[in-house]
Amino acid sequence: MKKIAFLIYYHKQNFYSLNAIAGALETDDIFESIDFYFVRTIDKLLVTLEEVIKTYDKIVIGISFSSIQLFETYELVQKLKNRFPERFLAVAGGSHPTGDPHGTLKMGFDIVVVGEGEETITELMQKIINNENYSTIKGIAYSNDDNEYIFTGKRNVINLDEYPPFPVKNTRFGAIEITRGCPYVCYFCQTPYILGTSPRHRSIEIICKYVQELKDYFRDHTDIRFITPNAFSYGSIDGKNLNLKKLEDLLINIRKIIGKNGRIFLGTFPSEVRPEHVSNDTLDLVLKYADNDNITIGAQSGSQRILELCHRGHTIEDICKAVDLTLRCDLKINVDFIFGLPGESEEDVKLTIGMMKELSNKGARVHAHSFIPLPQTPFSKAQVTRIKDVYKKEIKSLISKGSAFGDWMKQERLAIKIAEYMKNRKLK
User: Fold this and answer.
1) Distance CA 355, CA 352 (A)
2) Strands 223-227 and 263-265, sheet pairing
3) What is the CATH classification number for the domain harbouring 50?
4) Given this model, what pLDDT does residue 385 score?
5) What CATH number is given to the structural domain containing 283?
6) In whole angstroms, what is the distance from residue 271 CA to residue 182 CA?
7) Residues 173 and 144 in one domain
8) 3-class secondary structure, 235
9) Domain boundary, last residue among 125, 151, 177
10) What was the pLDDT predicted at 62?
11) Per DSSP, which regions of 179-331 are E strands?
12) pTM exceeds 0.90
């Protein structure tokens, strides 16, 4: 049997999700029939595709992307299709394709993986290699011969313990996903709509198995980072009532493996914590077991009315308390705010600016974002307007003092384009 070439567009913004896909393929016999190419740039992708076309009859290009990458991904796919027509199968996955599979197919993709991709990509590769029809695979969307949109139906969620967080055989390491699913259902966030509202946790045993892989590879300079919607919720049944014993057990076992020279990062990139879960107990775990000198919390607004409108599930008081407790523990704190949330009035803007100033005066740093409408969310078709000048003036002042950071200006430009796309579904 001839091998298949799998070109993974290993973009820096998406490699965590692609690690999960590549890792899943290592759990199946199909792995032996695939040659993997991890490609980080568009130029390298074009060069690699030109080379593998000479050798392989079957080529799959895997691209994962979010809504903020919508337009650059469209240009990439058009470039690939125009230069190498009919020579490869373009497969899309990730948050945007899951929320907008029909639109993603119109971009030029042949197949869209909808939702969690570990089981889906394994079945898909099996069908491609065996020249079998893939219409029976759950969790994909495609256009049939009559150009009709077909969605094969939603898959059941996976057991995280059955799949690695990253590919070990291909030695592409990264953060370890410890939890999937979020019970809070914030109206601007895709996470619960893609991964469900019931938290699923990787077991301590399996997490430590992959911590050991990292330790064996990196030796005395092993950094452990987690992927989770809420870093303090590990082990919690509902994601709201914390299970700190379970979280501490996890940290103790990881520390045993990586030793004193290894580093654990808890409550910082690529995950954050909810403000109401910041307490003396949770901060004690950071101080005792972790190596980060800061945590990140999601405040999003300084207006209680907007927090409730967004279905956030916490209060203004929770935010202030979290900042005070963190700073009292001699930890730094970054606080996420989203500008231009739907329904925001002048009074709401005033309240948010007031809170940003108050928190920054205490020593917190503001992480500034612009609201972006995301597919599948209740705010997907919300109106997007330019960020108000009063916001811009204040955030620029905070940035000049070193009290704020973020890509909010770039996000503002993208938000307007994405909002237009969400209404008319046209990319040109």
Assistant:
1) 5
2) parallel
3) 3.40.50.280
4) 87
5) 3.80.30.20
6) 13
7) no
8) coil
9) 151
10) 98
11) 179-180, 200-201, 223-227, 263-265, 294-300
12) yes
The 3-state DSSP composition of the chain as helix, strand, coil percent (nearest 5) reads 45, 15, 40
Cα 326 to Cα 320: distance, rounded to the nearest angstrom: 10
Q: How far apart are CA 49 and CA 426, in angstroms?
A: 28
From CA 392, how far away is CA 387, in angstroms rounded?
7
Q: CA dihedral defined by 97, 103, 108, 113, rounded to 10 degrees? A: 30
Task: Verify that 208 and 139 share a domain, yes or no.
Answer: no
The tokens for 361 are 């005066």
377-415 pLDDT per residue, tens:
999 999 998 898 999 999 999 999 999 999 999 999 999
56 with 179, same domain?
no
Structure tokens at 269: 């990139």
Of 151, 175, 208, the domain-final residue:
151
Give pLDDT < 50 ranges for the chain: none
Long-range contacts of 80-88 (CB under 8 A, 24+ apart): 80/45, 80/46, 80/49, 80/108, 81/108, 83/46, 84/49, 84/50, 84/53, 87/49, 87/53, 87/59, 88/7, 88/49, 88/53, 88/59, 88/60, 88/61
- Could you give the number of structural domains in the chain? 2
pLDDT in the model for residue 220 = 86
CB 240 within 8 A of CB 183: yes
Q: With left for phi above 0 and alpha for psi between -120 and 50, is residue 145 left, alpha or beta?
A: alpha
Query: Which residues constitute the domain of residue 339?
Result: 160-424
Q: Do 168 and 315 reside in the same domain of the chain?
A: yes
109 shares its domain with 175: no
